[in-house]
Please model this.
Amino acid sequence: MQRLFPFLAIGLFLAVPSLESQKVIQSADEAEHRGIETETAKLEQQNDSALAKFFAKDWICVGPTRVLSKTEFVENIKHNFVTQENGVNPTPLEKKNVPVRVLETQPS
Model:
């Protein structure tokens, strides 16, 4: 056991910086994610079709009564912009516990 102690101590000293770098990476990723959330919320509130730039080609919106393709969703945004005063949605948008599913396809 006494022979292993130096190796364990060295391992602990090496592990701490590694954990710290993981926190930094996680913090950077989290900050980027929050920035995207803020920008998409603003675009959605303003009925700005630029919101679509954040969606994949095959993105779909699954609602309680129907499913919208990316194209249909963008058309709805444009329609809302025209029908609402100054394009701004008068109802504040609030999202809580939104389920997100990421489906990956295998490259062909």
Notes: The first helix runs from residue 5 to 45. The chain is about 50% helix and 5% strand.
